[in-house]
Amino acid sequence: MTRKLTRRHVLAASAAAGAGAFITPVRGAPPETQKITPALIEAAKKEGKLSWYTSVDLALGEKVASAFEAKYPGVKVKVERSGAERNYQRIGQEYQNKIYNCDVVNSSDAAHLIVWKRANMLAPFVPEEVAQHFPAAHKDPDGMFASWRITLSPIAYNTKLVKAEEAPKSYADLVDPKWMGKIVKAHPGYSGTIMTATQQLSRDLGWAWFEKLAKLKVMQVQSATEPPKKLAQGERALMADGGEYVVEELKTRGEPVEIVYPTEGTPLITGPSAIMVRAPNPNASRLFHAWSMTREAQQLNIDVGALRSAHAQARDRADMKKFSDIKTLREEPGVVADQADALKAQYLKIFKV
Amino acid sequence: MTRDLSRPILIAVSALLAAMIVLPVGWLLVVSLTNKEGGATLGNFVALFTDPTFVDPLITTLIIACSVSVICCLVAAPLGWLVARTDMPLARTVRTLVMASLVTPPFVGAIAWEMLAAPNSGLLNQLWRLMSGMPSDEALFDIYSLTGLIFVISCYTFPYVFILVANALDRMPGELEDASSMLGAKTWQTARRITVPLALPTLLAGALVAFLQALNLFGSPAILAIPAGFHTLTTRIWSLFQFPPKPELAAAASVPLLVLTILLLRAQAMALGRRGYAVLGGKYGAPRSIRLGWLRGPAVALALFVLAMPLFLPYAALFNSAFSRVASRIVTPETITLHNVRFTFLELSSTMPALKNTFLLATASATLGALLALLIAYIVARKAVRGHRVLAFLATAPLAIPGIVLGVGLFLAYTRPPLALYGTLWILLIAFVTIELPAAYQQLGSAFHAVHPELEEAGRMLGATRLRTLADITAPLLRSAVIATWCFIFVATIRELSAAVILFTSETKVLSVLIFDLKESGDVGAIAVLSLSMVAITTIVIAAANRLHARPQMRPAT
Asked: Do B520 and A83 make contact, defined as CB atoms within 8 angstroms?
């Protein structure tokens, strides 16, 4: 483990590659755009399976897998769901030990894709619809990854425990002492969503805001998918962070939860996907990755999963606030890639866990 | 004449133990004394003892371990006495149920207690508010607290102490008590002057077991302490494997645990070693049963109340959330749903592989572990090779290593040639056998003490090799102990989380890790279904093993 791939090593190795930007330097002509061809489907069926590491909410992940399996019978998807930071650690550990289990990876911490790309751990592949319908900000110029999902990390509250007019409107409202013992939040050491959000919030609000929050006896959970569930159970009245799509999904099921998009802006979380360079099932990986970026699959993410999409033709859900109407905080995966350790250390200092 | 294969086998066992224990522990020590650049340093220990993010968890852990130890003794001793030495009704049932509560993995218990006693959504708190009319943010219990954690750990630790105490009281000769009462002592006086002193060493051993359990437990603190905003030593060590991993600090953090445990084990050996407590000879009368009189009712009520904590309440909560859409609501005939069952078995793609891996590993670990423990116990009990003490020490040593740290040690040892086992089920097998070896060895070791070497010596004198004696004389005599040990390892392997959480890969995921993963994303419905399935499998296997155990009595001895 001492020889482990660390962000620091990777950064040192590619010091020339200017960090800090989502768009990593172009290494050459991007690879050709690939269609879903009958030959690809056949080859994928021969492999028959693939392993998908993702940090998306488990229920949604399994639904996506089922939809894919229904569309391409004969190719089974094994969903390996864990927190993005945990998956990141695991993939690093596995690759270090020449264990190649992962086919397609999706992370809610976009910084991971940057690090993996620099470490030559990704295979280039540009699905047709990514080339045609994804804006430049949501695809890697070298064709290594593209944004499979987009979500936000808003505030939310339990409508049975908090009246709408009393609910906080902003992050400043949230740290009011009256919410002592009533807030649940997820952890940046586990969740990529929260890692990303922590970087944005510490940049825009400062660590002092986190210190105020920590004084309120916050309930600390791991995954960004859990605070909404704690909210629905009524275990806590407010969530400081967590996946917007999970709150929406619970709301659709009739649970008493409501979202607040804070006036300061809501952290924006891009979750890119990629194929691993040593994917044991390369054709099944390509098929799954290509399909997952289609309008059909992206619309499924929105309709069933309440996610947002980078696909130009995907349509917002009528019951959700329009994506373009929400003030979002700026995402800086390059900065997260550089500062992740420092962010976690600071977080540990403030929240003790 | 057949060649005596015993010596090569003994050497092989020693080598195996060395590979299993010395290798990972060695790597741990080396790594704990190494800085990032690979040079020798004590810096990790300096960092450890000056950094409050380590010192606080260390103190917390000691508080937890002491409290758990005391609580377990306070609960287990009276309960064990009631079951073993009184005419309390349902004594057998109570005993069986306490044993059954051991089947519950502690982390599952912690999750179930979360469903019961989370301050706001906990079912018990909701009930209390309903009855007392208190407002929605008042809570009777807060499981996310130090007290809550101590309580939950005690729930799943006291059965160990209970079993020790009850068994010791079972074996205690009735004559001593008879003598006491014949000499005119009253019932309670006999209990105080004879029974308690005789049981005291066992209680001490029980306190130690409870202490070590609480010290090394990972699952319950991971589930309850982190939401409460504090770390124990094990969760802190685990957090060091978040990215970027700091194995050198984790290794250093485990050294105090190692030293502390060795000291405690020494102390226990000294306390017990001085006096002779040989109470097992087979010629004593059955222990006396004390008449409780009108106290029989209250006694059984107390026993059932205690059992509600690890058993009735948590399982009620698990069943509730298995068939409910939201765990914090009581299932009614209108709201009952099979959604979670369907999701777990039809949609969740990890369920089947995890079940398969778990079953395979538990069977293999139990078989291998029981065999290995049998061999070591034999070697040590019969002083069969020079240096057998080293074997005894090695077989007990893993007790001192928290599962999570052993996981790290194994990871360090087996991710490099010649044995790159990481990513295979083998590394998990080694981990599980190593972790369960101390308990298995102790069980079989004490069983060996009960079998007088005379019988074996007779066999040897008549020309049988050592192995043959072992197979034909000792093994049959130890049959029930071996089966009990097998079951013990089987159950313990299924419950094991702390080493597995470090050593698994997506292809070698086991049930406990799957449940832990589900916990982190709050999918409690699926957790409830999986936990109940896990307990069902364990129960079936144990029942089957016990049938096997009962069989020899039905056929004539040969």
From this structure: yes
